Amino acid sequence: MEHGSFTDNSAATFSLADEDHTIANAVRFTLNQDPRVTFCGYSIPHPSEARVNIRVQTTVIQQERY
């Protein structure tokens, strides 16, 4: 599930259900290896919930028009 504004295509927050630090840290590490990603981090809203929020911000790339 994606949360956030549809007007800003350079940032989004994704919520993963039934996951924990294990997958979140792997996703964060992998995305931060991409030079187009300016920020990627995650948070666990509450320790008793099996849910992870992952925030991704990217550089703005102009799309070519055909």
Automatic annotation (TrEMBL):
This is DNA-directed RNA polymerase RBP11-like dimerisation domain-containing protein. It comes from the Eukaryota. The keyword Flavoprotein does not apply. InterPro entries: RBP11-like (IPR036603), RBP11-like_dimer (IPR009025), RNA_pol_Rpb11_13-16kDa_CS (IPR008193), RNAP_AC19 (IPR033898). One of its GO terms (biological process) is transcription elongation by RNA polymerase I. One of its GO terms (cellular component) is RNA polymerase III complex. Belongs to the archaeal Rpo11/eukaryotic RPB11/RPC19 RNA polymerase subunit family. The keyword Transcription applies. Pfam families: RNA_pol_L_2. PROSITE patterns: RNA_POL_L_13KD (PS01154). Keywords: DNA-directed RNA polymerase, Transcription. One of its GO terms (molecular function) is DNA binding. Residues 11-59 form the DNA-directed RNA polymerase RBP11-like dimerisation domain. Gene3D superfamilies: RNA polymerase, RBP11-like subunit.
